[in-house]
């Protein structure tokens, strides 16, 4: 009866062609703060960026904020927790758009199939149905009963739009110095498989489309190993990665132990990837059947007390930022033309799956630190927000983006940044 109820609800809520057109028209009504050069932006997004523009880059005072309300998963019925229905919208609504340092732009169309196939295989793309997504999202039998049209409309299409946003953000960063996509950062997706809500590897697609003749560094600061990037980074001569994560919550770390480098004094270009391993808490996976898993926290004390779990995580602001101080050395060795910064906010102490204890202030100072180190070296930086699970993380992300936008022109001019150094020193 439950499955029949789900099917009936789906049939009642599936969009007719006229309804779809109405929704599309409503979606096109973007926020009023837009780039004055939106026509130019759309034409730029259709062509590959000439890497030589980066050599004579003019760093403007603007940070390009890339966001479309088509990023959101507006499902009319049950939705797996992996796909937060309006997370990106809530982040965008937190931004101070009247700031003169912001230029809001948006992709004019979702990423094309041809662009996706620059990285992913056609066999993998053909597998993206409800059953497969249910497995990788860890939701038993939740989406298997959904029609493919539902999967495409409410899951695949928003991800395609976010991928297009990452490509546009990287293009803008190459030409103008700085951009932030309020979406993307799907660091677990590989060429032939997805994981959790990481179905497409937007950063890999952007690199393939925009950065073929550039030296690119991916900086990933998620609480879990950015496992989706490893095979790709090792296969590309122009691609490097700085990956800082919780070593106790990475079940596949042994798979990559041959390429794990943790001694910055011995790191060299040939190593490709540098790792900072944090000593945080961990989760364990309980198999539910047919490759579906449920992550549950491993606690030393009361297993049902979430507050206790949060208070006993071991990676605090001080330890986190001291570990991150290896990033400038990595940048000096690699000398990238552009940094694609996948921020990720699951180290947040209220994120159930992060198993770390970094506060809101710690994450904001972290983001400012990464941006300043790039700007000091005249490296273009394009940021994606990555994935996380805290119901309130949109507040942290929104405030952090506001701080980045406010400090960006100060970092360029090296003026009025005493407050930043004071906040950094308070943590260190």
Can you give a write-up of this model?
This protein has 428 residues and is of the alpha/beta class. Helix content is 40%, strand content 13%. It is built from 16 helices and ten strands. Strands 2-1-3-10-9-4-5-6 form an eight-stranded parallel beta sheet, with helices on both faces. Residues 1-7, 9-56 and 285-311 have low confidence and may be disordered.
Show the helix and strand layout.
Blueprint: H1 2-13, H2 17-27, H3 38-44, E1 63-66, H4 87-93, E2 102-105, H5 113-116, H6 122-126, H7 130-136, H8 148-176, E3 178-181, H9 202-210, E4 216-220, H10 227-235, E5 239-246, E6 273-278, E7 283-289, E8 292-297, H11 306-311, H12 317-324, H13 327-334, E9 338-342, H14 360-376, E10 380-384, H15 393-413, H16 418-427
Parallel strand pairs: 1-2, 1-3, 3-10, 4-5, 4-9, 5-6, 9-10
Antiparallel strand pairs: 7-8
Helix pairs in contact: 4-15, 8-9, 12-14, 14-15, 14-16
């Amino acid at each position: 009866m439950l499955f029949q109820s789900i099917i009936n609800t789906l049939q009642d809520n599936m969009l007719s062609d006229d309804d779809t057109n109405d929704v599309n028209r409503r979606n096109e009504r973007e926020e009023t703060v837009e780039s004055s050069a939106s026509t130019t932006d759309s034409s730029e997004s259709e062509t590959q960026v000439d890497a030589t523009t980066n050599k004579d880059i003019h760093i403007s005072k603007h940070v390009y904020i890339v966001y479309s309300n088509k990023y959101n998963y507006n499902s009319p019925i049950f939705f797996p927790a992996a796909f937060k229905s309006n997370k990106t919208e809530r982040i965008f609504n937190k931004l101070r758009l009247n700031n003169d340092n912001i230029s809001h732009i948006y992709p004019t169309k979702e990423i094309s199939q041809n662009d996706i196939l620059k990285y992913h295989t056609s066999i993998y793309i053909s597998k993206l149905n409800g059953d497969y997504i249910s497995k990788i999202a860890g939701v038993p039998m939740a989406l298997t009963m959904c029609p493919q049209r539902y999967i495409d409309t409410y899951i695949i299409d928003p991800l395609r739009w976010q991928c297009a946003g990452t490509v546009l953000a990287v293009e803008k960063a190459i030409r103008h110095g700085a951009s932030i996509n309020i979406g993307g950062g799907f660091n677990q997706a590989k060429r032939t498989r997805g994981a959790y809500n990481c179905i497409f590897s937007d950063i890999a697609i952007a690199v393939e489309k925009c950065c073929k003749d550039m030296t690119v560094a991916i900086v990933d600061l998620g609480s879990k190993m950015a496992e989706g990037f490893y095979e790709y980074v090792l296969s590309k001569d122009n691609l490097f990665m700085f990956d800082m994560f919780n070593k106790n919550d990475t079940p596949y770390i042994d798979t990559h132990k041959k390429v794990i480098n943790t001694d910055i004094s011995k790191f060299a270009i040939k190593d490709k990837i540098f790792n900072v391993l944090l000593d945080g808490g961990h989760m364990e996976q309980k198999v539910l059947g047919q490759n579906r898993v449920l992550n549950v926290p491993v606690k030393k004390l009361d297993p049902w007390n979430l507050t206790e779990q949060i208070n006993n995580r071991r990676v605090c602001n001080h330890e986190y930022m001291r570990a991150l101080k290896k990033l400038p050395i990595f940048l000096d060795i690699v000398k990238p033309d552009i940094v694609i910064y996948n921020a990720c906010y699951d180290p947040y102490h209220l994120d159930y799956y992060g198993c770390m204890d970094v506060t809101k202030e710690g994450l904001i100072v972290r983001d400012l630190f990464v941006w300043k180190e790039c700007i000091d070296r005249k490296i273009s930086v394009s940021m994606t927000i990555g994935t996380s699970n805290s119901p309130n993380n949109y507040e942290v992300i929104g405030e952090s983006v506001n701080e980045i936008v406010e400090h960006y022109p100060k970092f360029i001019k090296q003026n009025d940044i005493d407050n930043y150094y004071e906040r950094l020193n308070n943590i260190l």
